[in-house]
């Protein structure tokens, strides 16, 4: 295996050790020594891959964002036939909810990054980077739905797309706090989509019942 691949793979393994710590106690409580112990390597070995905690945090944030994007793409690709805009939106939005252990860890780590990013300019810039792309993706699907007559044209806006992102972020927080369980959050998401896609009193482009 090429040396470069080994180096990248080890950096990813260290990132995943950091996520486990972050999901359990946040990023502030995770020192380089703690991460090294969690990864099963020495502190000196960890510093061979990351010269500082900030460098490690930035790499780990980019890595978890890539994995989250891959998970959402997998959900879209798993949809049968040619998915409707509503089905694409539901796949994306439900993929952002902490409905299983894998996604729960991802949301917990994201929350830990959010707390640190509020005070760290570099992490804040990185954390903000993906939001315009996600907003554009959702707005494009809303406009596509309006063109198909499945959504009132006045709802096909970037503001509406941003409200969808904000809604799922809020539901995710409440699932983590055990205010709601995942099934309830998903039901609320489906209810909102049903109201959003209501045209002349009828729901348009509704997905087949079932599935998470």
Automatic annotation (TrEMBL):
Transferase recorded as keyword = no
Q: Which residues bind DNA?
A: 31-50
Q: Which residues form the HTH tetR-type domain?
A: 8-68
Show the Gene3D superfamilies listed in the entry. Tetracycline Repressor, domain 2
Highest taxon in the source lineage: Bacteria
Q: One Pfam family this chain carries? A: TetR_N
Q: Which residues belong to the signal peptide in this entry? A: none
The entry's keywords? DNA-binding, Repressor, Transcription, Transcription regulation
Coiled-coil blocks: none
PANTHER family in UniProt: HTH-TYPE TRANSCRIPTIONAL REGULATOR YJDC, TRANSCRIPTIONAL REGULATORY PROTEIN
According to UniProt, the name of this protein is HTH-type transcriptional regulator PksA
